[in-house]
Amino acid sequence: MIENGEATIETSEAQLKRLTMRSWRRGTKEMDMILGPYADVHLPGMDAVRLVLFDRLLWENDQDLLPWVLGQATPPSDYALLIAEIGTFARNRLQP
In the predicted model, is pLDDT for residue 6 greater than 70? Predict the structure, then answer.
């Protein structure tokens, strides 16, 4: 992270807050409702490598993410397992 031209280290608490906020405040309400609850449940238990991957995923456009999660389009291979996990989590939340 760069602030005022100097590199700073983000604390793990700050990273989790940032990722959670970005998960809940996407460009579309549909992705808010998919990624927000997923982040609330899963981010605290993710290891550093998985957090970096999730952070990268959050930079993707919602117009790409939603079809990936819904299984309407094939996600890039590096996201495939994470997208599958998110999709399963979202579907399970909707079941009575």
Answer: no
pLDDT digits (tens, 9 = 90+) for 20-37: 999 999 989 999 999 999
Concatenating the DSSP letter of every residue in 30-76 gives HHHHHHHHHHHHHGGG--HHHHHHHHHHTTS-HHHHHHHHHTSSPPP
Give me the residue label for tokens 């970005």. 22
∠ CA 60-9-50, rounded to 5°: 40
Q: What domains are defined for the chain?
A: 12-94 (1.10.150.250)
- pTM (predicted TM-score): 0.86
Q: Count of CB atoms within 10 A of residue 35's CB?
A: 26
